[in-house]
């Protein structure tokens, strides 16, 4: 996986965390740097941890499904992307200014489930997992910290758009994986 593809994937995976961070910023109103760091650490940490777990699960299963791994990657990414788009048109999320352990843990897990499935696809694609999870985690950290700041400044006007963009990115990456497997793109 090339660095540009990894960057696009990292941004796509971070969109849920980014949207939740914007909500956190909205609910907190006046923020401090520690609020940005807390959100960044939780979301970035879980966005790095979950694909690592998924990678080890996928590595365990990779030998059994190697012939159709590109289709598995496509289906997982398409489902995750479609779900992100569907959630963007769902009910408005309630704003909660709590940044305690339990609240942040639940939100970090909820926003990184898709990263677990992406980690499974990494095993099939033979990705350098250390570089990938580090890059994804760092990207999620930065976007989440920025999301808190942006949320404290602006309204929630862009939350749905960010989720839709993230979903579309994941679906497009899945399509690219299938096209690459058949030699259509390169």
Q: Could you characterize the architecture of this molecule?
A:
There is one protein chain. The protein has 186 residues and is mainly α. The protein is built from six helices and no strands. The protein is globular.
Work out the helix count.
6
End-to-end Cα distance, whole Å, is: 13 Å
Proportion of β residues? under 5%
How many strand segments? 0
Q: Would you tell me the overall average pLDDT? A: 82
Q: Share of helix among residues?
A: over 70%
**Low-confidence blocks of residues:** none
Quick description:
By secondary structure, this protein is mainly α.
Task: Describe this protein with a few key phrases.
globular; 186 residues; 82% helix; 6 helices; mainly alpha
């Amino acid at each position: 996986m090339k660095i540009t593809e990894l960057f696009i994937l990292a941004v796509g995976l971070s969109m849920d965390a980014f949207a939740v961070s914007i909500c956190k910023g909205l609910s907190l109103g006046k923020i401090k740097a520690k609020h940005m760091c807390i959100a960044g650490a939780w979301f970035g940490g879980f966005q790095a941890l979950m694909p690592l777990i998924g990678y080890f699960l996928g590595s365990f299963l990779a030998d059994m499904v190697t012939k159709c791994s590109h289709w598995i990657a496509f289906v997982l990414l398409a489902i995750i992307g479609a779900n992100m788009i569907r959630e963007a048109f769902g009910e408005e999320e309630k704003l909660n200014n709590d940044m305690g352990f339990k609240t942040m843990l639940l939100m970090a897990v909820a926003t990184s489930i898709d990263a677990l499935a992406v980690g499974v696809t990494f095993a099939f694609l033979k990705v350098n997992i250390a570089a990938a999870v580090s890059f994804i985690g760092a990207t999620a950290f930065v976007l989440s910290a920025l999301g808190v700041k942006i949320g404290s400044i602006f309204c929630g006007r862009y939350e749905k758009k960010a989720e839709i963009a993230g979903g579309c990115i994941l679906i497009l990456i899945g399509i690219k994986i299938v096209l690459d497997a058949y030699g259509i793109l390169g």
